[in-house]
Specification:
The structure is a single chain. The protein has about 130 residues and is an alpha/beta fold. Helix content is about 45%, strand content about 20%. It has a five-stranded parallel beta sheet with strand order 2-1-3-4-5.
């Protein structure tokens, strides 16, 4: 009987460790999608600062490249958690398509020339902030 209790205890420990292991294995990514992401000096400087902190950053200068990447590699896996920075221009195109992906944690829309809070489409998506 003592042996059987030990087995139960070991099995319980393995289950707990597996749950912890699953949480530890989450992979965080930051995607930055903007046609000027690799063109403007300010953006390049900010990228360097991000890379100095972590290597989780990936940039795209067109939303279709990003859309293909996320559909092929990140759509169906719960292992990845994605933070997205995207221009308003690209956001209008891509956010409706990807907003419900489980891997998307948050979407930050930016545009230095406008008041983004006035854009009704942004208010339709709870993961979007500006």
């Amino acid at each position: 009987m003592g042996f059987s209790n030990s087995k139960s205890s070991i099995s319980g420990t393995i289950e707990i460790n597996q749950q912890n292991f699953d949480n530890i294995n989450l992979i965080y990514k930051l995607f930055w999608v903007d046609e000027n992401v690799n063109k403007e000096d300010e953006n390049i400087l900010f990228q360097k600062q991000l890379y100095a902190i972590s290597d989780i950053v990936q940039t795209f200068d067109h939303y279709e490249k990003f859309e293909n990447e996320i559909k092929q590699n990140y759509y169906s896996t719960g292992q990845y958690k994605i933070f997205l920075i995207i221009s308003e221009q690209f956001g209008k195109e891509i956010v409706p398509k990807i907003h419900n992906y489980e891997s998307i944690l948050t979407i930050h829309i930016f545009d230095t020339n406008r008041n983004l809070h006035d854009n009704e489409w942004i208010n339709l998506y709870p993961k979007v902030n500006c």
